Protein backbone atom coordinates (compact mmCIF):
# COMPACT_ATOMS: atom_id res chain seq x y z
CA UNK A 1 0.00 0.00 0.00
CA UNK A 2 1.30 3.45 -0.93
CA UNK A 3 2.02 5.98 1.79
CA UNK A 4 -0.83 8.40 2.38
CA UNK A 5 -0.45 12.18 2.26
CA UNK A 6 -0.83 12.29 6.06
CA UNK A 7 1.94 9.74 6.54
CA UNK A 8 4.24 11.63 4.17
CA UNK A 9 3.49 14.89 5.99
CA UNK A 10 4.47 13.31 9.31
CA UNK A 11 7.69 12.00 7.73
CA UNK A 12 8.43 15.49 6.37
CA UNK A 13 7.77 17.37 9.61
CA UNK A 14 9.46 14.82 11.89
CA UNK A 15 12.54 14.78 9.68
CA UNK A 16 12.68 18.57 9.49
CA UNK A 17 12.49 18.96 13.26
CA UNK A 18 15.00 16.18 13.89
CA UNK A 19 17.46 17.52 11.32
CA UNK A 20 17.22 21.03 12.75
CA UNK A 21 18.17 19.83 16.23
CA UNK A 22 20.85 17.50 14.86
CA UNK A 23 22.57 20.23 12.88
CA UNK A 24 22.83 22.34 16.05
CA UNK A 25 23.86 19.67 18.59
CA UNK A 26 25.18 16.80 16.43
CA UNK A 27 22.41 14.42 17.48
CA UNK A 28 18.64 14.18 17.61
CA UNK A 29 17.41 13.25 14.14
CA UNK A 30 16.64 9.52 14.63
CA UNK A 31 15.67 10.14 18.24
CA UNK A 32 12.93 12.55 17.20
CA UNK A 33 12.00 11.20 13.78
CA UNK A 34 11.73 7.48 14.58
CA UNK A 35 9.15 7.77 17.41
CA UNK A 36 7.07 10.34 15.49
CA UNK A 37 7.08 8.44 12.22
CA UNK A 38 6.30 5.19 14.03
CA UNK A 39 3.03 6.78 15.20
CA UNK A 40 1.68 6.54 11.65
CA UNK A 41 3.89 3.71 10.39
CA UNK A 42 5.69 0.84 12.12
CA UNK A 43 8.97 1.16 14.00
CA UNK A 44 10.65 -0.92 11.31
CA UNK A 45 9.29 1.40 8.60
CA UNK A 46 10.56 4.43 10.49
CA UNK A 47 14.06 2.99 10.95
CA UNK A 48 14.37 2.11 7.27
CA UNK A 49 12.92 5.40 5.99
CA UNK A 50 15.38 7.61 7.87
CA UNK A 51 18.45 5.49 7.09
CA UNK A 52 19.33 7.34 3.88
CA UNK A 53 18.68 10.95 5.02
CA UNK A 54 20.36 10.28 8.35
CA UNK A 55 23.50 9.00 6.62
CA UNK A 56 23.49 12.03 4.33
CA UNK A 57 23.11 14.42 7.26
CA UNK A 58 25.96 12.78 9.17
CA UNK A 59 28.24 12.82 6.14
CA UNK A 60 27.59 16.52 5.54
CA UNK A 61 27.99 17.58 9.19
CA UNK A 62 31.13 15.47 9.58
CA UNK A 63 32.67 17.07 6.49
CA UNK A 64 31.61 20.55 7.64
CA UNK A 65 33.46 20.06 10.96
CA UNK A 66 36.51 18.24 9.53
CA UNK A 67 38.87 20.99 10.71
CA UNK A 68 38.32 19.74 14.29
CA UNK A 69 39.41 16.16 13.60
CA UNK A 70 42.79 16.65 15.29
CA UNK A 71 40.99 17.42 18.58
CA UNK A 72 39.08 14.11 18.64
CA UNK A 73 40.19 10.78 20.08
CA UNK A 74 39.30 7.08 20.09
CA UNK A 75 37.30 7.28 16.85
CA UNK A 76 39.03 4.28 15.30
CA UNK A 77 38.39 2.06 18.31
CA UNK A 78 34.78 3.19 18.60
CA UNK A 79 33.98 2.75 14.93
CA UNK A 80 35.71 -0.62 14.58
CA UNK A 81 33.42 -2.30 17.09
CA UNK A 82 30.56 -0.03 16.06
CA UNK A 83 30.53 -1.74 12.66
CA UNK A 84 30.25 -5.15 14.33
CA UNK A 85 27.46 -3.91 16.56
CA UNK A 86 25.57 -2.38 13.63
CA UNK A 87 25.61 -5.72 11.80
CA UNK A 88 24.30 -7.55 14.86
CA UNK A 89 21.66 -4.94 15.63
CA UNK A 90 20.34 -4.64 12.07
CA UNK A 91 19.93 -8.40 11.78
CA UNK A 92 18.18 -8.43 15.16
CA UNK A 93 15.79 -5.63 14.12
CA UNK A 94 13.05 -8.04 13.06
CA UNK A 95 13.71 -10.67 15.75
CA UNK A 96 13.99 -8.94 19.14
CA UNK A 97 11.64 -6.66 21.12
CA UNK A 98 12.83 -3.07 21.33
CA UNK A 99 11.53 -2.23 24.84
CA UNK A 100 14.51 -3.66 26.80
CA UNK A 101 16.94 -1.75 24.55
CA UNK A 102 15.07 1.52 25.10
CA UNK A 103 14.83 1.19 28.88
CA UNK A 104 18.51 0.29 29.35
CA UNK A 105 19.52 3.16 27.09
CA UNK A 106 17.35 5.69 28.95
CA UNK A 107 18.57 4.57 32.39
CA UNK A 108 22.19 4.84 31.25
CA UNK A 109 21.64 8.42 30.12
CA UNK A 110 19.92 9.38 33.37
CA UNK A 111 22.77 7.87 35.39
CA UNK A 112 25.30 9.95 33.48
CA UNK A 113 23.22 13.11 33.88
CA UNK A 114 22.93 12.51 37.62
CA UNK A 115 26.69 12.15 37.84
CA UNK A 116 27.20 15.32 35.81
CA UNK A 117 24.84 17.34 38.01
CA UNK A 118 26.57 16.01 41.12
CA UNK A 119 29.99 16.80 39.69
CA UNK A 120 29.81 19.28 36.75
CA UNK A 121 33.49 18.93 35.89
CA UNK A 122 33.16 15.16 35.61
CA UNK A 123 35.16 13.65 32.76
CA UNK A 124 36.78 10.36 31.80
CA UNK A 125 40.55 10.14 31.51
CA UNK A 126 42.11 9.34 28.11
CA UNK A 127 43.29 5.99 29.48
CA UNK A 128 39.76 5.10 30.63
CA UNK A 129 38.11 6.07 27.34
CA UNK A 130 40.72 4.22 25.30
CA UNK A 131 40.08 1.08 27.33
CA UNK A 132 36.29 1.18 27.15
CA UNK A 133 35.71 2.75 23.73
CA UNK A 134 35.43 -0.63 21.94
CA UNK A 135 32.61 -1.73 24.27
CA UNK A 136 30.80 1.58 23.85
CA UNK A 137 31.21 1.33 20.08
CA UNK A 138 29.79 -2.20 20.05
CA UNK A 139 26.76 -1.14 22.10
CA UNK A 140 26.15 2.00 20.05
CA UNK A 141 26.37 0.09 16.78
CA UNK A 142 23.95 -2.54 18.04
CA UNK A 143 21.44 0.12 19.11
CA UNK A 144 21.77 1.90 15.77
CA UNK A 145 21.05 -1.28 13.89
CA UNK A 146 18.28 -2.57 16.16
CA UNK A 147 16.18 0.55 16.77
CA UNK A 148 17.84 3.23 14.63
CA UNK A 149 18.86 5.29 17.70
CA UNK A 150 22.42 5.34 19.03
CA UNK A 151 22.79 9.08 19.57
CA UNK A 152 22.24 9.19 23.33
CA UNK A 153 24.93 6.57 23.97
CA UNK A 154 27.53 8.21 21.75
CA UNK A 155 26.63 11.75 22.84
CA UNK A 156 26.82 10.84 26.52
CA UNK A 157 30.18 9.13 26.01
CA UNK A 158 31.71 11.98 24.03
CA UNK A 159 30.32 14.58 26.42
CA UNK A 160 32.48 13.03 29.14
CA UNK A 161 35.53 13.85 26.97
CA UNK A 162 34.77 17.60 27.36
CA UNK A 163 35.66 18.30 23.75
CA UNK A 164 35.28 21.68 22.02
CA UNK A 165 31.92 22.03 20.25
CA UNK A 166 33.15 21.36 16.71
CA UNK A 167 35.29 18.40 17.80
CA UNK A 168 32.29 17.01 19.67
CA UNK A 169 30.04 17.28 16.62
CA UNK A 170 32.72 15.84 14.34
CA UNK A 171 33.15 12.86 16.66
CA UNK A 172 29.40 12.23 16.83
CA UNK A 173 28.72 12.49 13.12
CA UNK A 174 31.78 10.43 12.18
CA UNK A 175 30.63 7.60 14.46
CA UNK A 176 27.02 7.89 13.33
CA UNK A 177 28.08 7.95 9.70
CA UNK A 178 30.12 4.75 9.92
CA UNK A 179 27.48 2.73 11.77
CA UNK A 180 24.70 4.23 9.67
CA UNK A 181 26.44 3.23 6.44
CA UNK A 182 26.75 -0.36 7.63
CA UNK A 183 23.11 -0.35 8.69
CA UNK A 184 21.99 0.94 5.29
CA UNK A 185 24.00 -1.65 3.36
CA UNK A 186 22.46 -4.46 5.39
CA UNK A 187 18.94 -3.04 5.04
CA UNK A 188 19.40 -2.86 1.27
CA UNK A 189 20.82 -6.37 1.19
CA UNK A 190 17.81 -7.67 3.11
CA UNK A 191 15.42 -6.00 0.69
CA UNK A 192 14.02 -3.74 3.42
CA UNK A 193 14.07 -0.61 1.24
CA UNK A 194 10.74 -1.19 -0.51
CA UNK A 195 9.42 1.35 -3.07
CA UNK A 196 7.09 2.91 -0.48
CA UNK A 197 9.89 3.25 2.04
CA UNK A 198 12.12 4.76 -0.63
CA UNK A 199 9.48 7.41 -1.32
CA UNK A 200 9.39 8.16 2.40
CA UNK A 201 13.19 8.38 2.46
CA UNK A 202 13.17 10.88 -0.41
CA UNK A 203 10.59 13.05 1.37
CA UNK A 204 12.65 12.89 4.56
CA UNK A 205 15.78 13.83 2.61
CA UNK A 206 14.11 17.00 1.34
CA UNK A 207 13.28 18.02 4.91
CA UNK A 208 16.86 17.32 6.03
CA UNK A 209 18.30 19.36 3.15
CA UNK A 210 16.14 22.36 4.07
CA UNK A 211 16.54 22.19 7.87
CA UNK A 212 20.29 21.52 8.12
CA UNK A 213 21.56 24.92 6.85
CA UNK A 214 19.16 26.67 9.24
CA UNK A 215 20.50 24.64 12.15
CA UNK A 216 24.10 25.43 11.22
CA UNK A 217 23.35 29.15 11.38
CA UNK A 218 21.77 28.71 14.81
CA UNK A 219 24.79 26.73 16.04
CA UNK A 220 27.15 29.58 15.21
CA UNK A 221 25.31 31.74 17.73
CA UNK A 222 25.95 29.26 20.53
CA UNK A 223 29.28 28.92 22.30
CA UNK A 224 30.75 27.33 25.40
CA UNK A 225 28.23 26.92 28.24
CA UNK A 226 25.23 27.60 25.98
CA UNK A 227 26.18 24.76 23.66
CA UNK A 228 26.79 22.38 26.58
CA UNK A 229 23.43 23.24 28.15
CA UNK A 230 21.66 22.56 24.87
CA UNK A 231 23.39 19.18 24.54
CA UNK A 232 22.43 18.24 28.10
CA UNK A 233 18.84 19.35 27.49
CA UNK A 234 18.74 17.19 24.38
CA UNK A 235 19.96 14.22 26.41
CA UNK A 236 17.29 14.80 29.08
CA UNK A 237 14.56 14.97 26.45
CA UNK A 238 15.96 11.88 24.77
CA UNK A 239 15.88 9.87 27.99
CA UNK A 240 12.28 10.86 28.70
CA UNK A 241 11.26 10.11 25.12
CA UNK A 242 12.90 6.68 25.22
CA UNK A 243 11.15 5.74 28.46
CA UNK A 244 7.80 6.95 27.12
CA UNK A 245 8.33 5.03 23.88
CA UNK A 246 9.25 1.86 25.77
CA UNK A 247 6.22 2.01 28.07
CA UNK A 248 3.66 3.10 25.49
What does this structure look like?
With 248 residues, the chain is mostly helical. The protein has one domain (5-247). The protein is 78% helix and 0% strand. The protein has ten helices and no strands. The longest helix has 25 residues, at 165-189. The chain is globular and about 50 Å long.
Descriptive terms for the model:
0% strand; 248 residues; mainly alpha; single chain; 78% helix; globular
Helicity level: over 70%
For the largest beta-sheet, the strand count, sense and barrel status come to: none
Number of separate domains: 1
Q: Could you state the oligomeric state of the chains shown?
A: single chain
| Proportion of residues in β-strands | under 5%
Order of helices and strands: HHHHHHHHHH
Distance between the termini: 26 Å
Report the uncertain regions: none
- Rough shape? globular
The total of helices stands at 10
Q: What would the average pLDDT be, to the nearest integer?
A: 83
What structural class results from the helix and strand content?
A: mainly alpha
Please state the CA-atom Rg, rounded to the nearest Å.
17 Å
Strands, count: 0
Secondary-structure blueprint:
Blueprint: H1 5-25, H2 29-37, H3 43-64, H4 75-92, H5 99-118, H6 126-147, H7 151-159, H8 165-189, H9 195-219, H10 225-247
Helix pairs in contact: 1-2, 1-9, 2-3, 3-8, 3-9, 4-6, 4-8, 5-10, 6-7, 6-8, 7-8
Brief overview, please?
The protein has helices at 5-25, 29-37, 43-64, 75-92, 99-118, 126-147, 151-159, 165-189, 195-219, 225-247. The protein is an all-alpha fold and 248 residues long.
Amino acid sequence: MSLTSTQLLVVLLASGLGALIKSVTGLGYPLIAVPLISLVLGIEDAVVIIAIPNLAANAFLCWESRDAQAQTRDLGRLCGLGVVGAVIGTIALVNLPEQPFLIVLALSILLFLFQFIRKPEFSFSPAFTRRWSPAVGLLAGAMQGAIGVSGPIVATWFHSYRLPARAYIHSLTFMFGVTGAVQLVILLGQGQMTPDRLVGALVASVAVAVATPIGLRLRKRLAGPSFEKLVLLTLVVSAVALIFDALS
